[in-house]
Amino acid sequence: MKPNKNIYFLYIIVGAIILFCFCKTLLHYFNVLYYPAEVADGEGLLSRNILYLAQHKAIYQNINQWPFVFNVYPIFLPFLGSIFISLIKNPLLIGRIISVFSTFLIAILIYKYLRLQNTDKKIAIISSFAFLISPFVFIWGAWLRPDILAILFSFLSIYYFSKAKKFSIFLSGLFAILAFFTKPTMIAAPVAIFLYLLIAKKYRELIIWSAIVLFFGITIFYLINYQTHSQYFLHVIRYNILSYNFRAFISYSGEFIILHWFFVFCFVYFLALSLKEKKHLLPLLYGLVVVLLTLTSGRAGASINYYLELVLVVILASGLLLNHFNINNKKLMPFVLLLLILQICWFGFYKQIIGQNIFNETKEYSYSPSKQDFNTQIEIKNFVEQFCPGKIFSEDAVIALSAQKEPVAIPATGLIALQKANLWNQENFVNLIQQKEFSCIILSKGWIAEKSLRAIQDNYTLLDTKEALWQNKIYKPK
Q1: Angle subtended at Cα 134 by Cα 130 and Cα 135, rounded to the nearest 5 degrees
Q2: CA distance 72 to 76
Q3: In 294-370, which ranges are continuous DSSP H helix?
Q4: Do the Cβ atoms of 62 and 227 come closer than 8 Å?
Q5: Higher pLDDT, 144 or 300
Q6: Cα-atom radius of gyration of the chain, to the nearest Å?
Q7: Which of 160, 353, 381, 446 maximizes the CB count within 10 A of its CB?
Q8: pLDDT exceeding 70 applies to what percent of the chain?
């Protein structure tokens, strides 16, 4: 075969494997979308926020008073979800649809950005789908969490700034603000753009862009904080300054590198090449800032979601690097495509290859809910509606919401961290347990403060255990 035919054949193999992995991703997303309970911790809290904003109820309240809710998430995702509550009555489904939609928009944006940088169409398409089938995106892409939507806004900020057209600088600033009000650690784009303008000595654009971001950002933050009597600042900023575990950062980083080894290598090569040739300064800075921000993954409550933007960055860099090879070193392309084939196969089959899940997490990671899981959650919902009048406490807030009960003491993991930092006093909650104020208690994860758990064991009897995605232990008063 001629060299160009060899490369064409390798592109076909890459496309076929990507298509197979993409079909697996779609099936997983479908299973997650309609699962009637939490797949990930925090989905219940965001479901509650979407529903309560639609009903014009307060969502940022004193954590030491009923209902003891630590609202760790900013306001924009719940606000966006609340707009659609009249069309789709299920807030959990609304939020998951937003995440899936955002995931696909990011993939489209990867293609458009790479084409904006004159990247070959085949490489741009492969890069888009590589993002969709990354194990990290496979896991988080359909969950009701703010990360994917925030990354979409962050990347839109980079994209519109790169277009350098009329109103682009305003749109870039707007999306940077939306990213922050979706997830407060999503600041890589504005920092990268600021550094780019500073290094390029484009001081006029720097002043305009900074003025847009700071004026609108500070104004919106002040208005929200004023309306919530400073609770917004406490929940979203102050209460998020928690203990740090460097070993967790190392563990998550190791998982990322092992699963994305080809793209990590390409990213490092891209950085060196960009510095040498003094090209692609903005994606270079964006990538470096994102890498630095992964250090925050050691914070209590963080997880591999802090690497989702890094997935985007390393795949973007890989697309730009492959295009460089395609133009300047075609002889190397067959070898590079062979490595890419190995990487894509690793994405799709790493569990079968090593015989286990690489993630040191609970089983919901990369696990698609089954029909039995679905039926079990419906049984729990029916039980609560029939036999649990009045207040209930459920770690999975979706169970409470589906039975039209008010979620209490969520998210449990966040409250534990606050309790350890002496920011949450659990005594009022413990008193309610001791007084048997809850007609039933459902522990799905057991991630609650030790004193609260002892109070449950002393005052409630384990009635049943329902095995679904989580192990749901149902307690009734003694």
Answers
A1: 160
A2: 13
A3: 308-328, 333-354
A4: no
A5: 144
A6: 24
A7: 160
A8: 96
